[in-house]
Every structure is written in structure tokens, then in C-alpha cells.
Amino acid sequence: MRLVAFGIGYVGLVTGTGLAELGHDVLCVDIDPGRIRQLEDGIIPIYEPGLADLVRRNERAGRLRFATRVTAPFDEADAYFIAVGTPPGPDGAADVSAVLAVADTIATTAKKPALVVVKSTVPVGTCDAVQAQIDGGKKPSVALEVVSNPEFLKEGTAVQDFFRPDRIVLGARSDGAREMLRALYAPLQLSGERVVVSDPRSSELTKYAANTMLAMRVSFMNELARLCHATGADIHAVRLGVGSDARIGKRFLYAGPGYGGSCFPKDVQALFHLGRAHGVPMRMAEATHLANEEQAEFLARVVESAIGPLDGRAIAFWGLAFKPETDDVRESPSIKLAKALLAKGARIVGHDPEAAKNFAGAMASYGDRVKVVDRDYDALDGAHALVLLTEWRSYRAPNFAEIRKRLRPSDKGAAPIVVDGRNVWRASEVVRAGLRYQGIGVPVVDPPPNRAPTAQR
Ligand SMILES: NC(=O)c1ccc[n+]([C@@H]2O[C@H](COP(=O)([O-])OP(=O)(O)OC[C@H]3O[C@@H](n4cnc5c(N)ncnc54)[C@H](O)[C@@H]3O)[C@@H](O)[C@H]2O)c1
Questions:
Q1: With CB atoms counted within 10 Å of each terminal CB, which end of the chain scores lower, N or C?
Q2: Closest ligand 1 atom, CA of 35?
Q3: 2-198, CATH topology level
Q4: To the nearest whole percent, how much of the chain has pLDDT over 90?
Q5: Where do you find CATH 3.40.50.720 in the chain?
Q6: How far, in Å, from the CA of 446 to the mean position of ligand 1?
Q7: Does any ligand 1 atom lie closer than 6 A to the CB of residue 7?
Q8: H helix or E strand, kind and range, residue 392
Q9: pLDDT digits over 230-273, tens only?
Q10: Is the pLDDT of residue 274 over 70?
Q11: Interval between CA 412 and ligand 1 midpoint (Å)
């Protein structure tokens, strides 16, 4: 088939490239000329494992092209995918103006009947609004059917998720559209049917429901972790006990620094705004959002109570991306925690294998109070605490003796502290190196007396 994908971001680039890999002829379109220039120069504008090779291979094979607008023969495409951003507007409701702008472009460009596939995450009713806009305009002279096909890929495993999706959700009104999409996605379902077919409105809501349900689990575990701190309970034990119930399951039950990224925070908010617009309060979504907003403040208090007044002190961050295997720092807990600590007078020195540049860009207004370094251990020199915020593999088994050597002890004369914001390190190993260990929702663990520092540096 001949296909066009609008929006060369995480979703559009992975989808367009994945479809090209399946043998289709694909044009990826973005309004950002800088992005197109980068791709023409062989630079992949986002970091996503496996993507660069796939892009190059399909470009070389002539199945994948990039442009700022649709040109022949792609004005006779079989389907147009909309994968542009739907960021929160000023009140938190989803802003679908980019989706509507692309719909206009498609309506005035398409020269043969085609599907308009909305992959962007959009509020219920958007596909109908897009259809009405297309049908109401002067153009098109050809029939265009709008279908909902929300994207469920996860940054960091997006390529893998494209080729082995858990499910493919489709919302279409006509049998013809359903059949065409089934045919398009058939190569991804050789091991069994993964398509969930419904109407566009149910399909649109499914995406918000899934993200909010996952975010809810995270926020609930984070609230429980705070209760553990207050009561002396241990979140690991609670998680195992709760997760062994088959109805609940152990996955996605980890306490941490709060959820981030370009999806959960905005989608949870979009859901409760959608509820408000329809007179249906979505109290669970609102509480999920509030609990998440509070988590960075909670973590800042944990750091402060561990090392005393933060004024002028450097705090090292390992991990700046909102999750491993991505360079995305949108709504990252690292940014929220950095802001909370900066407000208390601290300085931040961060390291991340892929996201340091994006973090530095996002924090540029703080000048030299926020620094990033190229080598992970260099972030520790002179810092009063190390906070692990993203569980990249390269941070999983660090040299704690080296960390101990480089960190400064707090004024209280106690051992330097590491705050394991992802609960991935073994406290016993950390304290053996003469460090204090503070995880999320677990009691602080001090080093044995003979490993405590004898003098302050
Ligand atoms: N990132 C994810 O993990 C993920 C997962 C599932 C769903 N989604 C949803 O998919 C959508 C896209 O997300 P993303 O993270 O890929 O976005 P992104 O911000 O990475 O990329 C969006 C791209 O769209 C381009 N764009 C904006 N207006 C345009 C227009 N009129 N024509 C052509 N291009 C235009 C932008 O320049 C940008 O390059 C959002 O609705 C998001 O909620 C994202």
C-alpha cells in the first residue's frame, strides 16, 4: 500500500518506519523542516533502540521518505496516519488543533478515496469531529473515512512494540475500513488475533482508560510508599503480598519518583477534563494526578531530611529521562525533583546516557545551578547525595566504594547517602561500602559502625 504518516515523533516515525519494513511505500511528513533536514543528513531526531538501523535500511530500499508536505504520488495514498502531538492546553484538556490541521491538509490533498487513521491520543468524539470537518469543507472531492487506531507503544521498546503489539485497537464505522486495517496489520498477528474492533468513540476512550489505569497503580503504590515511611512498613513486602493476588498481579506495582513522560501525565488530566465536560467527575483520575504531583515534593523532603539544609549543596542525579532507553525528559520526575530541590537552595549535577542534553535544555533558565556531565561518576564529585531517578541498566550494579569515595558526608557527620528512587539497589550492598541507603517506602539503612566516615572532607 501507499501510506503517509503525519508527525515524525516517537509514534509517527516508529509507525511509518515499521510499515515500510513490512513492505509498504511510506512518506513521513512533519511541519518542522529541521527534523526533515536531520533525517536527510542521516540523523535520527529521537533515541529509540533499534530505530536508526530500521530507518536507514528502509530509506536505502526506497520504501521510506521524509518531507514537509505531501507530494505526488502520495496524494493518492491508501491511508493517512495522523500521529501529531496532542499536548495539554492551558486548563489540562487535550489540545487537538494539530490533529484538525492535519485533517485539513489531507482533505485538500487526497486525490483518491482513503482512510484517515487517527493514531494520536484524542478525547472521545475527536474522530467524529475530524470526519465532520472533512465532510463539511469545500474539499474533498474523494471519500475519506476517519478511523480511530490509538497507539500503545512504549518509549524504549517502541520498535519491538510495533512488531509485537499486545493488542491493536480499531474503531471504525464501516466494514470496508475495518477490513482494510485488518489487512494492513495482518503481518503483525501471525501468532494470533490481536485486534480489538469497536466504534471510534470506544476506541478513543480505551487509550485514556489504559493509561490512567496504569498511572493509578503507580500513584497508589507511591501513596502507600509514603505511608510506609510514616509507619515503618516496607513497600517491598507490601508489593509482593498485594501482587501475589492473581487478580492484581505484580507488574506496574513499583513505588518510585512518580510517573512522567509525554503520555501518562497529560492523558490522566485529559480524562478528567473530558469527564468534567460531560458532567461525569473522574475522581480516580484526579486523585491519581494529584498524588503524582506530590511525589516530587515528598522525594525532596526525603533528601532534605537525610542531609540537612540544602542551601548551596550539590545533589547528584543519575538518570534524567522519564524512563530507561529513551532521551525523552517531558514531565520527567528528574525535572520536577530538580525544581523542588532548587527551590530549597540546592544545586543539581546530572548524568544520563541519552537524555542529558534534553534535560540541560529544559533547565537552562537555572543557569549554572544545574549542570550535566558526560561521565556518570563525575556527577558525584563534591555532591552531598546521589539520587537514582532512572533505572538505566548501566546504573544497576555500580561501584558503591567509588560512590562512597566521591560523595561528601552530610554536616551531621553521618555517612554520605544514596537515595534509590527506583528501589533497584540492594541496601546491604550499599551500606557495606560505607554509605547510607534510602529507598522509596523502605526504612533508611545505616552502614555498620566500622564503615562510617571518621572525618568530614
Ligand atoms: N510518545 C509515546 O510514547 C506515545 C505513545 C502512545 C501514544 N502517543 C500519542 O501519539 C501522539 C504523538 O506523540 P509523540 O510522542 O510521537 O509526539 P512528538 O511530540 O514526539 O511528535 C509530534 C510531531 O508532530 C509534528 N507536527 C505537529 N503538527 C504537525 C502538522 N500539522 N503536520 C505535520 N507534523 C506536525 C511535530 O513537529 C512533531 O515532530 C500524541 O497524541 C501522544 O499522546 C504517544
A1: C
A2: 39
A3: Rossmann fold (3.40.50)
A4: 91
A5: 2-198, 201-457
A6: 46
A7: yes
A8: none
A9: 999 999 999 999 999 999 999 999 999 999 999 999 999 999 99
A10: yes
A11: 48
Q: pTM for the whole thing?
A: 0.93
| 308 alpha carbon – ligand 1 mean position (Å) | 42
452 pLDDT band (50/70/90 cuts)? low
In short, whether 425's Cβ falls inside 6 Å of ligand 1 is no
| CATH class for the region spanning 201-457 | alpha beta
Alpha carbon of 93 to ligand 1 centroid (Å): 16
- The set of cell numbers assigned to 65 is 521518505
Q: Which atom of ligand 1 is nearest to the CA of 29?
A: 33
Alpha helices in 93-199 (DSSP H): 97-109, 126-136, 158-163, 175-185
Residue 138: what pLDDT?
62
Question: What residues contact residue 256 under an 8 Å CB cut-off, 6+ apart?
Answer: 218, 222, 333, 421, 422, 423, 440
For ligand 1, is residue 35 a contact (CB within 6 Å)? yes
Tell me whether residue 28 is one of the annotated catalytic residues: no
Ranges of H-type helices in 47-94: 51-60
Buried b (16+ CB within 10 A) or exposed e, 85-106: bbebeeeebbbbebbbebbebb
pLDDT score of 455 more than 60: no
